[in-house]
Design a protein that fits this description.
With about 280 residues, this protein is mostly helical. It has helices at about 10-30, 60-95, 100-115, 115-130, 130-160, 160-170, 175-210, 220-230, 240-265. The radius of gyration is 22 Å and the shape is elongated. The two termini are about 15 Å apart.
Length: about 280
């Protein structure tokens, strides 16, 4: 039995990500102050009372960073799960449903891929508003186009294997073949791709909030916190540094884990291993 060896960089990423996920889960019970309530002076520096200082209207930054973990990480996770549900289903379906269906879906996906995700998201959110459901659905639909490409590439390779032909000859239905023959053998590269897409969606959520089209105040969100306190940096105040640092740390942690997964599994563009 092969012993699982996790490099130190991946261990560091796992610990950091677990720590922030822990903050997201238990944040409401450990924050020292209400993250939406003014408790001090504007942009006061770190102190025994306010460990990271206060923001542009006197709210405790530590409380808002901890509370913002639930919002930012949670939205990125839900968005990624939804985009994978859509992209993987369509990608595998295109690979096994026949050349006409494959060509049609691929051309539709190419049309959406011709416009950068962030620009398309800005257009949609400006037109429809920036409510949380709209934000999740918009990013998920746009990101599912990238997931589709990976899922289809892997599924096309798996669909040529003998066990898929045997399932067809047995008279198995198309949904059964997709769920029991294609998907299990496509999982290794898709798991690695999930980490990459989570990282991108995490940055999309933070970027849209920074631009004012994501999570709306007074709800704590890391991208929104950077925008709200951006002017403080001109006065040497560290208020916008803390949420920006949280975004950077989580991004690096996820990338370290994904790098390890990619080193163990077949890359998304290649063939998956048979189970």
């Amino acid at each position: 039995m092969t012993r699982l060896r996790i490099p130190p960089t991946a261990i560091f990423g796992i610990i950091v990500l677990a720590l922030f996920i822990g903050f997201a889960l238990i944040g409401p019970w450990i924050v020292p102050y209400d993250p939406e309530t003014t408790v001090g002076r504007t942009w006061s520096g770190p102190s025994a009372e306010f460990w990271l200082g206060t923001d542009n209207i006197g709210r405790d930054i530590l409380s808002r960073v901890i509370s913002g973990a639930r919002t930012t990480i949670g939205l990125a996770l839900v968005t990624t799960l939804l985009s994978f549900a859509i992209g993987v289903s369509l990608g595998i379906f295109a690979a096994v449903a026949g050349p006409r269906v494959d060509a049609f879906l691929s051309r539709v996906i190419d049309m959406f891929l011709s416009v950068p995700v962030l620009i398309m998201a800005l257009i949609v959110l400006t037109a429809l508003g920036s409510s949380i459901p709209t934000l999740i659905l918009t990013i998920a639909l746009l990101d599912s186009t990238r997931v589709y490409l990976v899922a289809r590439a892997v599924a096309v390779d798996v669909a040529t294997r003998d066990f898929v032909d045997v399932a067809r000859l047995r008279g198995e239905s198309l949904p059964w073949i997709m769920a029991h023959e294609i998907l299990p053998n496509a999982l290794p590269p898709l798991i690695s791709e999930f980490g990459l897409r989570f990282c991108f969606n995490f940055l999309y959520v933070a970027s849209l909030s920074f631009l004012g089209l994501g999570v709306q105040p007074p709800q704590a969100d890391w991208g929104g916190m950077v925008r709200e306190n951006g002017q403080a940096i001109s006065f040497g105040i560290l208020a916008p540094i803390w949420p920006a640092l949280a975004i950077a740390i989580v991004t690096v942690a996820v990338n370290l884990i994904v790098d390890w997964l990619l080193s163990r599994n077949v890359r998304p563009s290649g063939a998956s291993a048979e189970l």
